[in-house]
Amino acid sequence: MMQAHQADPTLARPEISFFSLGKAFIKLRHRTKWLKALPCHPIRYQLKYQADAWQQCFKSDKGFPKFKCKNHDNDSVTFPAGSFKLNGESLYLQKIGQVVLSGSNPYEGCDAKQVVVKKDDDKFYATVCYEVSEEHLAGVDNGKALGIDMNVGQFATSAGELKHMPDVARLEGKKNRYQRQMARRRRPNHKQGIKPSNRYLKARKRCRKAMRKIRHIRSNWQHQESSAIGKDYQYAVVENLNTKGMTKSAKGTVEEPGVNVAAKSGLNREILKTGWYGLKQKLAYKCELIEVSAKNTSRRCHVCGHTDKDNRKRQAVFKCMACDHSDNADVNAALNILALGTRAIGRGRGDSLETSVIRQEDMLLDFVKLAL
Ligand SMILES: [Zn+2]
Predict the structure, then answer these.
(1) pLDDT value at residue 243
(2) Most buried in the list 101, 251, 269, 297, measured by CB within 10 Å?
(3) What pTM does this model have?
(4) Which one is catalytic: 225, 327, 330, 366?
């Protein structure tokens, strides 16, 4: 592609492939003292992102790549194959040295492809990317399916179970308190050259710690629940929820202001907190994920199929107007979802194309996060 451009001088463009940028970098590294002190591979690998961004820019009309904010507190650096050695729990990183990994590793013995070291606030994490064989990842093959109805703060299964999210109210309260403290203290303003006060930085550190804890508790819960499902069921059927549409702000426009804006934004926060997407993502590589349309699943009677909004006069209880069947509303919805999913499996799962693509990617490279 590059050669074709060089042949025509009017189309000449700078060389922006990873290869040519890498070559230029090595030359520069030989001349520059401080570059030599840094690990070569991870810095050169950053050029791959730059090359990709420029290729993308020339291919589409999205415009020039944007520079990333310098002040990011959760920056990451990639160690490609060859610049690290992983031996059991000990990880050797070029120019950094030996570090010890903590945490369990289900992919020990698999081929490690790259390591991403990420700074999360004041802690460092290494995400090891493994090449995992299909057999290694294959879940149970028993043909059993489970319907899951996701709700705010909980989900219900077609087996009649209600799973509640762990309570993080205490941590949420802490986080809010520190956020209020930050608002009162002198915040940084880079344009006006104002530095943050020490008290501001102290509150920010505590706030981030609380947020990190909340994030870890939720993600751990999602992992445990999805693993438990993956152990017993081959298929997990979930609703195809449009979270983006559901959590749209009720603000409206200046001409037509919305109603109940505060209430809706509170609900939006609750919906996003549950982390449906995270749970789905984790389910997708622990079993086969099937998405079905969410339409009417909470209004239809699972026993007789009668669909009526009067079936659900109260939020938690489902009572059929036609056959008098009554059940927990979420479990009834989960049973409907399961029925739709079973039909989709019978059809050869033609409508879960998107899901199967996700699964294939996850099969090749699985990520394990280990604290350094
Ligand atoms: Zn009924």
Answers:
(1) 60
(2) 297
(3) 0.72
(4) 330
